[in-house]
Amino acid sequence: MTTSRTWSIAGIVAGVAGLATSYAVAMALTIRDSPVVAVAERVIAWTPGKVAEYAVRYLGQHDKTVLLLVIVLVLLALFAWAGRLAGRTWWAPAVLFTVLAGLGGWAVLAQHNATSVDLVPVATGLVTWLVCLSLLTDPLRRRDRAASEQASEQASEEAPGRDPFVVRGESATPGEVHDHTRRTFLLRASLMTAVAAVLGTVGRGIGRGRRHVEETRRLLKLPGVTLPQLPPGVRVDVPGVTPWQTPTDDFYLIHTAIAVPTIEPADWTLRIHGMVDREIVLTYSDLIARRTTQAWITLNCVSNEVGGTLVGNAWWSGVRVADLLAEAGVRPGADAVLQTSEDGWTCATPIEALTDDRDALLAVAMNGKPLPLEHGFPVRTIVPGLYGYVSATKWVVDLEVTRFEDVEAFWTQRGWAERGPVKIASRIDVPRNQEVPPGPFRVAGVAWAQQTGIAAVEIAVDGGAWQPTTLAEVPHVDTWVQWATTLDLAPGEHRLRVRAIDRAGVVQTGVVAPPVPDGATGWDEAGVRVLEEA
Ligand SMILES: Nc1nc2c(c(=O)[nH]1)N[C@H]1C(S)=C(S)[C@@H](COP(=O)(O)O)O[C@H]1N2
Ligand SMILES: [Mo]
User: Fold this and answer.
1) Which of 22, 100, 217, 321 lies 20 to 30 A from 337 at CA?
2) CA 470, CA 483: separation in Å to the nearest integer?
3) Residue 43 in contact with residue 68, Cβ under 8 Å?
4) Helix (H, G, I), strand (E, B) or coil at 486
5) Counting atoms of ligand 1 from 1, which one is nearest the CA of 343?
């Protein structure tokens, strides 16, 4: 009899073949990604904010890889189960595969801008599953039938009063049937595995859309975009302090998209509509032909913990949102702009932050180069003073002038605050839980209070009195500022604590609050161990 392991293998081979065809078909149709990724995106969209936060905290940037891996492992287990079900009935695995395909189809349709074409990969995958499973399980069934016939023959041979010659005809012996079906099964299984591997590779090859966009980006010339020049005096020059300008490759990344949208600038448009006098549709060349505004701006994630690193400072180049909104003519009563990205992410931004003199940008470049794909190529929004989740839409394609009371956005639906002004914050970069040699040592870090500016940064040792530090220069209020001081402490363990005071006189609170719903508060602390004199 066929062992349950063989049935499982049949299920897995059929299952993997179906995944490979659906992936290859998706790539051939230049669909953003395979149905499996669509399912993963649904999982992300349905994950409660708390769980998502833990995932990001413990898995960091690997969270999506881990999620995809888990989904594939679950699928493999289900495929194996489908194979074992096929050993009993033909319809049970068919139902299982159909349910899985239904799930995939639903996830695909839930994606932004989904069309019925996006269902083609799922449908092809389902057909592949059913055909491959029946091709693989047929020989197994024939073998089992032969084996049970043999068993009943033996039983009848032993049974008294039966003629042993009646059953045995001219047919092949059970042993021959066994070898033949075994060969058929192995041949088909290896053929399917090989075809699946080829399809996977071919799929990757056709999925070079992204590579093409990368190439377009590399060749782009952006008039008016200049390379960053570090403003004078912004650095405290203490080894170990975060660089004042965050290098693009080190800039934190936060987005819900699994496959980063790959948008050719020639295909990009931005629609400005809603409560406006004149709807505007801008192409990429329209946008970059306009006057370029450039600024150093620190971007913050609301999920940043006290002392965390989800914050970066870059030189952004783009077009003022305020000018575009003025051309569209904002109608009275509007207080928000609902921004939508190519991948369907949304955020609602207060209209005053987009129209006042803080120069909110439709950014096309970061640190003097076209935006990297992961940071929103070809166009993203950057609004000084607001957390990214309410303002910094990457791959932005739609701005709808509206009212807060009429809309809900991605993160506000998940319990985050409607408004997200960046809170005053300060961080110790060095020493951070380190040992220092005896004698004076330098302490340094960063602080920010966008739209207001930092007036002072103070540190306290072992819960003692607050002491002043020295601030480096800043070009304006919308960047972080580096601070530094020198300490000379007795050998042993010490705890350092930092707080900032803004230019309006507001002292950073020591009251501890988590990032949810509108940003963490509390003082950053770091340990230092001063070594004994040798
Ligand atoms: N399309 C899209 N834009 C997005 C997000 C997203 O998930 N999707 N995340 C936002 C959040 S929460 C932050 S903090 C910033 C991060 O921008 P970065 O990845 O370029 O650092 O992007 C914002 N823009
Ligand atoms: Mo964020």
Assistant:
1) 217
2) 5
3) no
4) strand
5) 1
CA 391 to ligand 2 center in whole angstroms: 9
| Residues in contact with 270: Cβ distance below 8 Å, sequence separation at least 6, in sequence order | 280, 281, 282, 287, 362, 379, 396, 397, 398, 399
Q: Tell me, what amino acid is at 408? A: E
- pLDDT tens for each residue of 404-443: 999 999 999 999 999 999 999 999 999 999 999 999 999 9
CA nearest neighbour of 254 among 397, 447, 66, 388 = 388
The bound ligand whose nearest atom lies closest to the alpha carbon of 254 is 1
pLDDT tens for each residue of 98-129 = 999 999 999 999 875 567 778 999 999 999 99
Percent of the chain with pLDDT over 70: 95
Indicate whether this model's pTM tops 0.90: no
What confidence tens digit (pLDDT) does each residue in 494-529 have?
999 999 999 999 999 999 999 999 999 999 999 999
Cβ(375) to ligand 1 under 6 A?
A: yes
Ligand lying nearest the CA atom of residue 518? 2
Residue 284, classed as helix, strand or coil, is helix
Q: Taking 60 as the threshold, does the pLDDT of residue 163 lie above it?
A: no
Cβ 203 vs Cβ 23: under 8 Å: yes
Note whether 200 and 24 are within 8 A (CB): yes
What pLDDT score was predicted for residue 148? 84
C-beta separation of 287 from 263 below 8 A: no
Report CA Rg, the chain. Answer: 31
**Alpha-carbon gap, residue 203 to 212, rounded angstroms:** 15
Measure the CA–CA gap between 434 and 427, rounded to whole angstroms.
Answer: 15
The DSSP secondary structure of 501-524, one letter per residue, reads EETT-PBPP---B-STTT--BS-E
Q: Say which amino acid occupies 23.
A: Y
Backbone angles phi, psi at 446, to 5 degrees: -130, 160
The DSSP output letter for 330 is B
What number does the ligand 1 atom closest to the CA of 251 have?
Answer: 21
Instruction: Starting from the CA of residue 313, give the closest ligand.
Output: 1
User: What pLDDT, on the 0 to 100 scale, is given for residue 166?
Assistant: 44
User: What's the token pair of residue 218?
Assistant: 């590399």
Distance 355 CA to ligand 2 centre (A): 22
**What ligand 1 atom has the least distance to the C-alpha of 256?**
7
Question: Token pair of 153, please?
Answer: 């023959």
- Return the amino acid letter for 358: R
